[in-house]
Amino acid sequence: MTKKFLLNSQKDWLRYSKDIYQIPNDKKAWWDLSKINNTQKQCMLGNVDHGNNSFIGSSKLHYVSQNDLQNRGLYHVFHPNEKIMEVVDMYVNPNYRGGGYCKQLIKDSINVSNHKKRSLFLVVEGDNTPAQRCYESNGFQYIEPTEQLIEFYRKRWDFLKDPMFMVRKKD
Predict the structure, then answer these.
(1) Which of 81, 57, 51, 52 is nearest to 69 (CA)?
(2) What pTM, to 2 d.p., does this model score?
(3) What tens digit of pLDDT does each residue of 86-131 get?
């Protein structure tokens, strides 16, 4: 049996995940992974296999401040007053890949962002065709990045080789 979760604080995550296995990192580190700073707000959503308490996968939604929009060079995409969430750390346990969980995580992320009246933004590696197809089929569109945007993400995640940037406006 699969159970979904949506958590809004590290405290809730640590309490919820205490008996869950196969999390891809230390539990505290998994919550903090990819945050710009310690004060950045986020929520985490995902799935757990309650038959064996295995972590199936999760996605995080970071709240992007107006200052962050400017620092990243995203004002050409979003109106200065538009509220944004960034999809980060999309992960599905290799034992569960091919089961539609990535698509479900994206749909759940869209539902959360719509409920919060926010548009979505994400970065995907250029050679990750399956993820790109999943995002496109769920209404994400490519944007032309500025040099500032590319530089921001290459500094943030030095492993990016060919970052592609996508947005999905709120419904």
Answers:
(1) 81
(2) 0.92
(3) 999 999 999 999 999 999 999 999 999 999 999 999 999 999 999 9
- The strand ranges marked E within the chain are 2-7, 42-49, 54-64, 84-92, 119-125, 141-142, 163-168
Tokens of 7: 């958590």
Q: How buried is 171 (Cβ within 10 angstroms: 0-12 exposed, 13-18 middle, 19+ buried)? A: exposed
Task: Give the pLDDT score at 158.
Answer: 87
pLDDT digits (tens, 9 = 90+) for 12-62: 999 999 999 999 888 999 999 888 888 889 999 999 998 999 999 999 999
Inter-axis angle of helices 129-137 and 101-115, nearest 10: 40
Residue 144's closest CA among 79, 93, 83, 74? 74
pLDDT computed for residue 76 by the predictor: 81
**What's the pLDDT at 75?**
81
Report CA dihedral (91, 94, 95, 97) to the nearest 10 degrees.
70
d(CA 155, CA 88): 15
